[in-house]
TrEMBL record:
The lineage of its organism: Eukaryota, Sar, Stramenopiles, Oomycota, Peronosporomycetes. It comes from Phytophthora lilii. Transmembrane segments: none annotated. This is riboflavin kinase. One of its GO terms (biological process) is FMN biosynthetic process. The keyword Nucleotide-binding applies.
Length: 89
């Protein structure tokens, strides 16, 4: 599958919500589930995929980050979501 580049900067702002508690443990790095309610229609408009970029948390950062938008086949997710993984500073 080809790697596509976004034409504009994508900015997401959302509350971190509790997940199932499995991602960070199995991936070996901190993860954060972003509130689908906060993301609203943007979550449905974004192409499913993996995005890299920067994250700030409570005004601290930026931290290198990877965001997964969509359904996670590894965990057999049924609901489209946004998951962000912090990769350290």
């Amino acid at each position: 599958m080809p790697i596509e580049q976004l034409k504009t900067v994508l900015r997401l702002q959302a509350t971190v919500v509790e997940g199932f508690g499995r991602g960070g443990k199995q991936l070996g790095c901190p993860t954060a589930n972003l509130s689908s309610k906060d993301l609203g229609d943007l979550l449905e408009q974004l192409p499913t995929g993996i995005y890299c970029g920067w994250a700030t948390v409570d005004g601290q950062g930026p931290y290198k980050a990877v965001a997964s938008i969509g359904w996670n086949p590894f965990f057999k997710n049924k609901v489209r979501q946004a998951l962000e993984e912090e990769r350290g500073g």
